[in-house]
Write a structure and sequence with these properties.
This protein is an alpha+beta fold and about 300 residues long. It contains seven helices and 22 strands. Strands 1, 2, 3, 4, 7, 10, 11, 12, 13, 14 and 17 form an eleven-stranded mixed β-sheet that branches.
């Protein structure tokens, strides 16, 4: 079985826990996840199965959307509810207009503080390995892009928000940094991923129902086939003759309405994904035309 299954990750599970469970239920050896969720977080966790694991990097690089809650009054060592308090614990009553103004500062490309308890590697070891031993490292930052950050509402010392961001953004770092700007410290206490790339929460399947894990047949019935993935990349249906050329790594001339695109999905006549190909060259038509010939080279080929 090849494709993607979108799991609604439960709280308390690591992303690797979910991968292991799906592998165990389906008996599929090749299963990978497309972006880590912290154990306390829930929501969209797309898993690639079989040959679709070769597409993992496409999904890793996609934008993510979240809904969460920040608790103001103190920061923590992990920037979330699992850490130890840093400094005095307070319970401020939040000013919504002031928070709106602070949120507005984080739109666009920003430098973000990487949490000490994170998987980012320093000298070959993840940062959490140093943090657990009490080793202090110099503060590390990274550039991310915040597409949107909206304050949904406040209740006493808690603020609910919605976030759309680039891959690799730490929502808990955002909570930590906003807390510093507000002047009282803050940490993330709830987080739900509502979208990952092309996969919304509505497409997510929980691992259990009524306290029991779903069966293999049920899980496999929810798999999105490879031909229905990466829909933002233009698709071209190729003939059986061109398919045979393709599996031998040969370049093709194809007719497409998306002749300006730099990458294409190549589907066979049954709608199955055969390959991903890059444009080698395309000539601008001298007059407006609905389609144009483009020469392409396959860079990921899925053999039968």
């Amino acid at each position: 079985m090849d494709g993607v299954i979108v799991i609604d990750k439960p709280a308390g599970w690591t992303s690797h826990d979910v991968v292991a469970k799906v592998r165990n239920i389906t008996k599929i050896k090749k299963v990978g996840h497309t972006g880590t969720l912290d154990p306390f977080a829930t929501g969209v966790l797309p898993l690639t199965l079989g040959r679709a694991t070769r597409l993992t990097n496409y999904f890793l690089a996609s934008d993510k959307a979240y809904r969460g809650v920040i608790r103001f009054g103190f920061a923590t060592t992990t920037y979330d509810l699992d850490g130890e308090p840093l400094g005095e614990v307070t319970s401020p009553t939040l000013d919504q207009p002031r928070l709106d103004a602070i949120f507005a500062r984080y739109l666009g490309a920003i430098r973000q503080t990487v949490p000490p308890f994170s998987a980012k590697k320093i000298h070959g070891k993840p940062m959490y390995a140093y943090a657990r031993r009490g080793v202090e490292l110099a503060e590390s930052t990274k550039e991310v892009t915040i597409r949107s950050l909206n304050l949904i509402g406040v209740h006493e010392n808690e603020a609910e928000f919605e976030l759309v961001c680039s891959a690799g953004t730490y929502a808990r770092s955002l909570a930590h940094d906003v807390g510093k700007d507000y002047g009282c410290g803050a940490h993330l206490i709830r987080l739900r991923r509502t979208k990952s790339g092309e996969f919304p929460i509505e497409a997510a399947t929980p691992l259990t129902e009524g306290g029991k894990f779903h069966t293999r047949d049920f899980i496999l019935s929810k798999v999105v086939p490879m031909g229905a993935l990466l829909t933002d990349i233009p698709a071209i249906v190729i003939s059986e003759r061109d398919k045979n050329k393709l599996v031998h790594g040969m370049d093709l001339n194809v007719l497409t309405r998306s002749w300006e695109a730099i990458e294409f999905r190549l589907l066979d006549e049954r709608g199955d994904l055969v390959a991903l190909a890059q444009r080698l060259q395309a000539f601008t038509p001298p007059v407006a035309q609905p389609a144009h010939w483009v020469r392409i080279h396959p860079h990921i080929i899925f053999s039968n």
